[in-house]
Amino acid sequence: MFALFIPVGILLAASLIILSAISFHFFVFQIIWIVLGIGLIIGSLFVDVRAIFNAQWVVWGLYALALALMVLALLVSPVIRNTHSWLVLGPFSLQPVELMKVALILLFANYFSRRHMAIARWKNIFTSFLFFVVPAAIAVKLPDLGSAAIFFGIWFGFLLLLGLPWRRVVVAIVVILLTGGLIWTYVLKPYHRARIVGFLYPNQNALGINYSVTQSKIAIGSAGFWGQGYGQGTQTQLGFLSEPSEDFIFAALIEEWGIVGGIVVVAAFLFLIFQILRIGMLADENFEKFICLGAAMMLGVQFLLNTGSTTGITPVIGVTFPFLSYGGSSMLANFFTLAMVNSIRKRS
User: What are phi and psi for residue 303, nearest 5 degrees?
Assistant: First the structure.
């Protein structure tokens, strides 16, 4: 148990330290989300995941609920940060895409645990593709490209790790590229296209579409081994770094705590992924193994996209760093995922 929660504790401690230097408001609310998340973990000690999520109607009900909330957000939610991603509930806001991440993990775990020996059949590939592509299409429409990319990562990760033949993989990649061309032409907003073009040409338009990445690189490059110190990061504290509490919190961390701080956080996260996969390997049933696999993929894809956009390796598409970035919906979704893994660990 401690091997699972020590790395999470390191990530949460780093999050609170960074946020306390950036915004007292975010710091206080992050504590609230963490307390609620700990409540989910405690609840997982008394709940058997198998008894609940093995029921088909529970898995499908959660997926349908998440899908309905995403549609509702698309239709009636206010525009926040150029998207319709948040359902506003008084002083709080909910991102349905975060619930959908959990729902997809459970749906794919349930689906593939019954069909993993026949993963290469086109029927199974196509059916699982529909499970992913419907919420992904809504996410693109919001628009929330980051969540759509995570949905894809969960689905494609399951296919690859469950032994999809390489010929099928090549066909899937071709279909994805063709679909991507249609999305580029008919779906993406102009600023999304600009972000992708900016990613391909990082040295151009440093004061325009590449401004955020440029400032992030400056923050990281000026950090040195030990960083500039608590509350002393110039890019972060003077407002040059965009979204230092969320999308670019990793850059804010390195600027103030240096390469050492970055290594500690990355090592803690990788150790967390290792422990989740280890619990999955020791689990009794395929359904439980696949939940752990899906949890590791969801968190891992978010980590890669967040750190990638921070360093300019991937386009900036608004993805949080699990357990580090500020955000109620994402934090609770991550804790809920961890609670499922912890329930599996307890009963393995």
Answer: -60, -45
Q: Provide the H-helix boundaries in 23-95.
A: 24-44, 49-53, 56-76
Name the residue with tokens 């033949």.
165
DSSP string spanning 9-43? HHHHHHHHHHHHHH-HHHHHHHHHHHHHHHHHHHH
Secondary structure of residue 92 in the 3-state scheme: strand
Amino acid letter, 121 = R
pLDDT in tens, 155-182: 999 988 887 777 777 777 777 777 777 7
3-class SS of residue 185 = helix
Count the residues in the chain: 348
CA separation for the pair 122, 112 (Å, rounded): 13
Give the whole-angstrom CA distance, residue 324 versus residue 18. 9
Q: Contact, 65 vs 99, CB < 8 A?
A: yes
Contacts of 174 (CB under 8 A, 6+ apart): none
State pLDDT tens for residues 242-266: 899 999 999 999 999 999 999 999 9
Supply φ then ψ for residue 231, to 5 degrees.
70, 10
Question: Can you tell me the distance from the alpha carbon of 164 to that of 185, in angstroms, rounded to the nearest whole number?
Answer: 30
Determine the angle formed by the axes of helices 249-282 and 328-347, rounding to 10 degrees: 20
Query: Distance of CA 290 to CAs 113, 136, 330, Å?
Result: 7, 21, 21
Q: pLDDT band for position 312 (50/70/90)?
A: confident
User: By the 8 A CB rule, do 209 and 203 touch?
Assistant: no
Question: Using an 8 Å Cβ cutoff, are 301 and 269 in contact?
Answer: no
Q: Which DSSP letter does residue 229 get? A: -
Alpha-carbon span 249 to 303, nearest angstrom: 12
- Joined tokens for residue 114: 């019954």
Which residue type is seen at 60? W
Instruction: Tell me which of 8-22, 55-69, 87-101 is least confident.
Output: 87-101
